[in-house]
Design a protein that fits this description.
Elements (H helix, E strand, L loop, with lengths): L29 E2 L2 E2 L2 H13 L15 H6 L1 H10 L9 H6 L18 H24 L2 E2 L6 H6 L7 E2 L5 H14 L2 H4 L3 H26 L16 H6 L5 H17 L3 H12 L9 H26 L3 H9 L1 H22 L7 H7 L2
Antiparallel strand pairs: 1-2, 3-4
Length: 363
């Protein structure tokens, strides 16, 4: 089934009615006592945390012009104070533990950009990348020895890790880590169990495969391996297809070339991952779930288009279309992988698959 995309419109009406008391851009609530945008919030916090000091070159009158105000850090900070912003200075140990701000060196645009849309995009990308790093860390560490089904994990996604991963069990953990990743989003947790099961059964194998391709690209390989460096297929499955290994190799190699051609960055991957997951065309889900997925897919579609505009300018629509077309590659190859495992399961009934793998591979 093709991916269903919704219109690129995600700015709530309420966001357009609140203005930052410092710079007059769109505000998103009170920060440190003043109605402000995220850029002014971060600017004020940075000045206080780092104990910075500035001097105005324009007779301390820059606040009369928003453009001049943003360029003059002394007047901007003074206006923050005038509007009632206040925070307690942090102790030295707290300063050391503060998270790093996003910067262009990290592959994300500066949060202090005067363009509010860019600022919002930066924050979205930063949060997605942090969540994906946590997912990847979980993948390469530990997991529960219990043989959980998909429904059991959805009911209790926070199972405490108690077993070091062995090479033979990467498939289970890859699926598990993706379920935990998506389950961290509040709009997913609010869905009913029936809708969640259908959404995760439809998406988990596809997007775990997509993640494997992206990991292969980041590792500068041309062939997908598991995080431990072993083949992604069980040895028994490789033996079964030893006389005709073409499909096994193609599934692990071919789509990587397409990612290289499109120069897929980690930011693009994080946004596409959410666009593909929030597919309102998933069969048999409720109308309420379909509306929720449509709404959130529009958020990530619009963010990806903005990112393409910033990085590819006039070619943004074409690049956006090319990136979304990756879904066909992912779906086709993940379905072929599923067929391979089903045939293997039929020919090797003695091989014991864990419940989660059976649930997501549909056998």
């Amino acid at each position: 089934m093709a991916l269903s995309l919704v219109p690129l419109d995600w700015s709530p009406i309420s966001d357009r009615t609140k203005r930052c008391e410092i710079c007059n851009r769109v505000a998103f609530g009170k920060h440190y006592g003043a109605l402000s945008c995220y850029a002014c919030k971060m600017f004020y916090r940075r000045v206080v945390v780092k104990k910075l000091s500035y001097t105005c070159r324009g007779f301390n009158e820059c606040s009369r012009s928003p453009k001049r105000l943003l360029k003059c850090q002394a007047c901007r900070y003074q206006k923050c104070q005038d509007k009632g912003m206040y925070m307690e200075p942090l102790e030295e140990d707290e300063v050391k533990s503060e998270p790093l701000e996003a910067s262009s060196d990290d592959g994300i645009l500066e949060l202090t950009s005067p363009n509010q849309k860019i600022e919002k995009l930066c924050l979205l990308l930063k949060n997605l990348k942090i969540m994906d790093k946590k997912r990847h860390s979980k993948l390469k560490s530990f997991y529960s020895l219990n043989d959980e089904s998909l429904e059991a994990i959805l009911i209790s996604p926070g199972v405490n890790p108690d077993h070091q991963v062995t090479p033979e069990e990467w498939a289970f953990l890859a699926l598990y880590s993706h379920i935990s990743y998506f389950h961290n989003f509040e709009f997913i947790r609010e869905l009913g169990m029936d809708d969640k099961k259908k959404i995760f059964q439809y998406n988990t194998l596809r997007l775990t495969y997509f993640c494997g391709l992206m990991r292969t690209l980041n590792e500068k390989r041309m062939r997908m391996l598991n995080p431990g460096g072993q083949e992604i297929y069980p040895d028994d499955l490789i033996d079964l297809y030893r006389t005709n290994p073409h499909n096994l190799a193609r599934i692990c190699c071919q789509p990587v070339n397409r990612l290289i051609e499109l120069k897929v960055t980690n930011e693009k991957y994080c946004l596409m991952n959410m666009i593909f997951f929030c597919n309102p065309a998933i069969p048999d889900i409720s109308d309420e779930a379909r509306l929720i997925l449509s709404h959130h897919q529009s958020i990530y579609c619009n963010a990806l288009f903005q990112y393409c505009e910033l990085t590819h300018q006039q070619n943004a629509p074409t690049r956006m279309t090319d990136l979304i077309s990756l879904y066909e590659y992912i779906t086709k190859n993940s379905q072929e992988m599923e067929v391979l495992f089903m045939i293997f399961h039929y020919n090797a009934p003695h091989f014991k698959f864990r419940k989660l793998i059976r649930d997501t591979f549909h056998f």
